[in-house]
């Protein structure tokens, strides 16, 4: 997946969330007003332990864990869902969220069965809306929990 031009400046890696980076993931923080936008990383890691389809990733920049994301790409489906993304409050605004989404889309695009990626966010989450719109995600409307669903069709 090609990110919007000139927007992949931040070298980041996605690493499997495991015992080695668990403490660093749990130390990541959001701004108070962002906390309602995404489940805590403690909840997400607990959820991932019990869900074989959850793919949990530490977002690593310059050797440090700066964020966390989680997605699923079920074996029997052609759609992947990115359902958690956060960048530590001290690291926001540096292009890391965009770089992490680009990397996640690259990783997902390797799975040839996957033809579309969906995401959801609170309708008032302007940062998420703009971030995802930049990749071409198209808003579909609110789901039953009043969260905005947006979908990106993968090319090819
Ligand atoms: C959303 C989030 C992951 C963005 O991460 P980030 O590293 O700060 O974002 P980037 O620096 O890569 O910015 C990429 C684009 O996102 C959008 N964006 C990021 N922060 C924004 C803000 N405060 N207001 C408006 N748009 C914003 C912009 O379009 C920006 O591109 P631009 O700088 O060219 O305008 C981060 O703000 C975050 O963790 N928020 C709390 C959790 C959350 O809302 N997660 C998403 C829903 S699950």
UniProtKB/TrEMBL annotation:
<dbReference type="InterPro" id="IPR027455">
    <property type="entry name" value="Sper_AcTfrase_N"/>
</dbReference>
<dbReference type="InterPro" id="IPR000182">
    <property type="entry name" value="GNAT_dom"/>
</dbReference>
<dbReference type="Pfam" id="PF00583">
    <property type="entry name" value="Acetyltransf_1"/>
</dbReference>
<dbReference type="InterPro" id="IPR050276">
    <property type="entry name" value="MshD_Acetyltransferase"/>
</dbReference>
<protein>
    <submittedName>
        <fullName>GNAT family N-acetyltransferase</fullName>
    </submittedName>
</protein>
<dbReference type="InterPro" id="IPR016181">
    <property type="entry name" value="Acyl_CoA_acyltransferase"/>
</dbReference>
<feature type="domain" description="N-acetyltransferase">
    <location>
        <begin position="12"/>
        <end position="155"/>
    </location>
</feature>
